[in-house]
Amino acid sequence: MSNFFNTKIEFLKGVGPMRAELLQKELNIYTYGDLIQHYPFRYLDRTQFYKIRELDESMPYVQVRGRIRGKEVLGEGRKQRLSAILVDENGDQLELVWFKGVKWMEKSLKNHTDYIVFGKPTEFNGRFNMAHPELEELAEEKQTTAFLQPVYHTTEKLKAHRIESKVISKMMEHLLKVALPQVQESLSPELIDTYKLMDKRNAYANIHFPETADKYNKAKFRLKFEELFYIQLRLLRHKVVRKADLQGQVFKSTATLTDFYKNHMTFDLTNAQKRVVKEIYGDLTAGKQMNRLLQGDVGSGKTIVAFITMLIAADNGAQSVLMAPTEILADQHYVGLKAFANSLGINLGKLTGSTKAKDRRILHEQLRSGDMKMIVGTHALLEDVVQFQNLGLCIVDEQHRFGVEQRSKLWRKNPRIIPHVLVMTATPIPRTLAMTLYGDLDVSVIDELPAGRKEIVTTHRFDSHRLRVFQFVRDQIMLGRQVYIVYPLIEESEQMENYKDLMDGYESVKRAFPEFKVSMVHGKMKAQDKDYEMQRFVRNETQIMVATTVIEVGVNVPNASVMIIESAERFGLSQLHQLRGRVGRGAEQSYCILMTGYKLSKDSKTRLETMVRTNNGFEIADIDLKLRGPGDLMGTQQSGVLDLLIADLAKDAPILQEARAAAQRILNQDPQLEQPENMNIRRHIQSLSVNTVNWSRIS
Description:
about 700 residues, alpha/beta, hydrolase activity, DNA damage, nucleotide-binding
């Protein structure tokens, strides 16, 4: 794209410095390029006109033609309003009312003049009216005009300064007049021909002001395809370059691993675990840096795969790091692996925020000298003082909880050769999201639970069933089991007074079960207090754990077999699934009970029905993506990873797959994009800054 699109927005007709400042702050619109890619989020159908007698309160915005027959200002002071009567060709009347801008409207509204009126009809005392309708004087030449009117995102602050959707629409009209001649094609002729794509100039014109429904659909497809194509091209190109350029340590020896398999492992790996270990081993012996994502549902056995990978590194004289987002999770990994490491004579350390200074000094020394081959920890591992003799493997658990800069700090701990990287997540990621978030990684999936694991039985119960649920809890504890009860809030707040809060719940549970001991854990507690309460529960000194979602990740109590989630409608689907995964870790049958009131939204019902119907994390993730969108699902909206302008990963999976296949095909044939037919693509990429995440953006 030419420098024209870098022109500051204040220079556009109808904007100016004050409006420009608001657009920058509120919508991140700084340039002509930003504005032209501020797409409408919906359209109002201005193609149909209604007669006044056809109006109905259930209708959304409608359009009526008629003549103004009289107007008057009613009321005093703040209660002043302007009322006008519109009469259509059948003689039926519609009252038009304005409560704001009364003086200005009275001046501009012409009596005995024909208008097109657009607004939401409401009925009052048997008569229809419209409050603050849009008005357009009906000129002869406009009588047959039919169009879809764009509606743009705006904000309360912009509205307060009279920059509403209609004003942005006017700005867009001014922009397109000067901008369309400057638009350059950014896809190759081959892509345009293969996918029957509308040219870019027409796509911009018809996404903002569609001439017909068909042209709108073609414009939308073209812009979505381009956006997803460039995101995939960037990821795949990054992958190609990394595989070509980045050397990795070669790990061939497996003596300790063989000893572990034969003499120390007390269980068999599942077929899925074996497949994943084979994929990882292939990476570690190839001489190129491994960059692999390991996906596996809660309890699928990712940690043991991580340990096997660490053993291969240790066998070859390299050190490895396993970094977790919380101390609880780091502790769990450490405790789970320490026994194995001890039996093999391997020095495994743990470094977290609460590691004492004296112990830290010893750990730092052992890592520098190479005496410590493996370490588990939290963000504390990223500190500059933590240095290694030869860091060869970095494993990051729940990696979306760490920023890009944090992770790269870990990779830089070996200045000589970049370590192999394995990132793990127990959050099942829908395929479309994985292709976009982690499209530059190789992906392994553990899609099988270890033998002997029973599927968790999930039920939905209303508050009126509470006594029966409490009796069930009592029966389970009498069988020797333990119970989690999770609440969405710590304290009552006015806005959420109908939802059970933790403190109130804790007191209720103590009253309901005076014969049992109850622990409580929440995010506002100090780390040592939280740990103390958790350890009491782990040792079965308390039978019931009342908690917030702090127990979502990383608590492993095999004896806990019941998970009760209060106000379950307050939780997202993947969060409910994560919470459910806290039980079902032992040999006993486990249960998850979702408690709600009777008032449930449509989305809440879908979430609860999904939880009851399936334990399949990937199916749950797909439904969650459709309900909530990708930004909420992975917290990527804030991190800028998913900087999507028009495409929607929940709805556009088929376009994404086509776009990825097209990007892969072009890179296979022309990795450097040097061939003449790819000139448009190369020119477009060269116009962007190196840090641009979404390559379909205008520079």
